[in-house]
Amino acid sequence: MKNNFVIETQNLTKAYGKFIAVDNLSLQISAGEVFGLLGPNGAGKTTTILMAIGLSEPTSGLVRVIGYDPAREPIKVKKVVGYMPEKIGFYDDLTARENLEYTGRLNKLGSQEITTKINEVLESVGLQDVPNQLVGKFSHGMKQRLGIADVMIKKPKIAIFDEPTSGIDPEGTDQVLNLIKDMASQNITVLISSHQLHQIQKICTRVGIFSKGRLVASGSVDKLGRETLRKGKFNIILPIAQLTGKLRDEISKIQGIMNIETKENSTVITAEDNISKQLEEAVLSCTGLKVQMRVEEFELEDIYMQYFKEL
Amino acid sequence: MSGLIEVFWKELADNFNSKRFIILFLLIYLAGIATIYIAAQNIRSSVDDSTKYIFLNLFIASGNNIPFSFPLFLSIFIPIVGIVLGFDAVNSERVSGNLSRLLSQPLYRDDVINGKFLAGIVMMAILIFSIVTLVAGLGLRMIGVPPQAEEVLRLFVFILISILYGAFWMSLAILFSVLFRKTATSALASIAIWLFLFLFMSLIAGLVASTVIPITQNSTVEEVSQFDTLYRMLSRISPSTLYGESVQAILLPELGNTSPTMMMIGMYAGLRPTPLPLSQSLLIIWPQLIGLLALTAICFSIAYIKFLREEIRST
Questions:
Q1: ipTM of the assembly?
Q2: Highest mean pLDDT: which of A132-146, A248-262, B248-262?
Q3: If you count residue pairs, one on A and one on B, with CB atoms under 8 Å apart, how many are there?
Q4: Domain A5-225, what architecture?
Q5: How far apart are alpha carbons A82 and A68 in whole angstroms?
């Protein structure tokens, strides 16, 4: 395929007998994106991931990762993709360092490179003090962080995390999310599946909502929120309680305003477009004050609930 | 390609480090030394002036009261080693959550199963080679008769056949480790098959053969020979029989036939067997060896195909 999508699926379908786990999925993820896969258990998120890394074969449809078919050319795909499965496991009777060494060797890194890289990644996940401890003695949170180190050591272009924060405490969750954020800032495309909507919202540039094998919505949280909760309209909040005289006239001149509503200490203006710039100018010209407009933000949770209420 | 080498070295190192192998090694060495000690004690009674290969005799001789020879001991222990090496090869990786991680690295899926199989074979070879040489050295010290070139060669073939026999049990265990999700299930299934083939197959063969051709005091030589053929055919379903027959022909050069009954008949008829050259002994057991090889290949191929086509989920 000639475009720049790093992960692309076309009518991807996976059926287990009569049960259809992934149904005609078409999805594009560009380089550098942090894409969140959302949806209840059994919605087909993991199955999609498995097909993307060649651990499961599609029943029909296409999946391409950096232009390669994971089922036909698994090595080319697996060289650039780091995958952290939901229930990650290590060799319990090997140390953290030995586990990472094995991954390094499987990725054909030189022994010198492996040593420096291991120190580097252990440092960044905060396990630098326990490299020679048996992984069997690690806590769940530590294993999860070691899993991220394991993904990092192969220097991936794409990192896929399946439920990376399930079952760990809030502090551990924060650490894991920060690590994933760091990876994203190093220009690694990240695909992350999770139930923890709040966390997803914090790090994802775009999300896709899965339900019964279908992708029911995708886009940035803002866009999704407007579409699902406000029927595509913008709510702009002015921190001014009363719109009086001249200001009121000025504002009503702006095109696209559909409704003006006064709340406790502010005014909510509903519009077809994001007119916060024009509003700011209007306020400045009338009152001489520079007032900060706020475009209404959405909680991913509300959006998510909206979808699963309807179904 | 080099994924195979990495998996191989990792698995071999794991084998050497694991406690179960240290225990198994000790057990097998102790039992091996014990059998050879008994054999050396009794070797005088089983050897006379006409015996050409005294050293080989050490390996087949057993105690007067304890009918327990070195090959019999090996035919019991090799399956155990094979099963221990293979029963959790794939499903333990799956249960521990390593398999998804491992298979998302840039290596082919067959590298994993081939690497594990090869590491197991090498482990088995080290074990069998070391115990045979240990026992041979001990025997040499005890009876003081050095082996002839022919005997050394035969011992080598004996080692190779033993490794092949072990490879069969290991590939069977690996097959179960691919088929069953739980390590306990695959271990039990392997042991059940082993017990059935080792203990009950000859009983069943005897039962079936004597129903088809009843042997009485008045049976003719033809009838006895027919019974014997049928019985042998049926018991050859068990790889233990194939192994036993092969080893006998290799360690007993006088054996011109894999059937002891037929040998007895020959002896009664006044035939005095002369030792065969190694190539002739090999010719006799060729079908058995091919049988063992085929069984190993079948088990391994099924495991291989199943594993390659499988979906790998971490949960």
A1: 0.82
A2: A132-146
A3: 84
A4: 3-Layer(aba) Sandwich (3.40)
A5: 15
